[in-house]
Amino acid sequence: MIQKGKIVKSDSGRNIRVDGLIKAGGQGEAYWATEVNSGQKGVLKVFHDRFNNNDTRRRIRFIMQQNLKKSGTAKRYFP
Description:
The chain is α+β, with helices and mostly antiparallel strands. The chain has 1 helix and 5 strands, in the order ββββαβ. The chain starts with 6 loop residues before the first strand and ends with a strand. 10% of the residues are buried.
């Protein structure tokens, strides 16, 4: 688990501040997060080692982007 307030670097090189745990599950953990440079709020997904590969990242990124488009929410998924 990542501590609230910790700054982590995303796969795309963004500095992301962890704002709090949403939920931990079978694939990993999801956190409310803020991109440090822009202040934009979003969700950070951290995978367990067995799921930490390019195929999983591409699949989850696609699913999250589709869900955000359908829901019309302003939240962002940080790749």
